[in-house]
Specification:
The chain is 36% helix and 22% strand. It has 6 helices and 9 strands. A 6-stranded antiparallel sheet has the order 4-9-5-6-7-8, with no helix packed on it. Helix 3 (62-82) packs across helix 4 and helix 5 runs antiparallel to helix 6. The radius of gyration is 19 Å and the shape is elongated. The N and C termini lie far apart (47 Å).
Amino acid sequence: MDKVKILETYLPPDAAPLIGRWIDYFKCEFKISRNRNSKFGDYRPPHDGKGHRISVNYDLNQYAFLVTTVHEFAHLHTWNEHKHKAKPHGTEWKNNFKKMMQPFFEKDIFPSDIKQAITGYLNNPAASSCSDLTLYRSLRKYDAPKEAVHTVEKLPIKAIFKLKDGRVFRKEEKLRKRYKCVEVSSKRVYLFSPVAEVELINE
């Protein structure tokens, strides 16, 4: 199957040809990966005879998939220019990320709310799109609905919720940017991101 046709099933269709050209130009192994809770995507530089490798989670919505893909290609481009001399999310990467995002702005790929959030993110891009809450929330609005999945910030105080690993917590008050939550079994306190996805187990 044609590479661009495959990419069109994960990306906004108008974005797929350029991503396909990047894969060829940079001689990159591009992998559509299983879901990883800790990250949306990953870049690995050439090593042990292997070339550039990028992986992006398969279950991202098309806009999150594109933002993540551009993020990882910016790492690749930065590595080509500076090798290990540049910091992972330093000035060099930020400049490349901005430049590589520009064609998709010019093609008017993104809805206005995501474009606005990306513009704010581009002013000081963090390590990942999920660490910028404004951008993350904008991207999540375009996710397919998930049954029984909530974000911590939407739960009432004292709500009981469960993680994918089965651990059960009780939500407590907000401490600065994160929510204090108590693991029911151990009484240990953990801090949760407002946008952490959990399963509510009592109303």
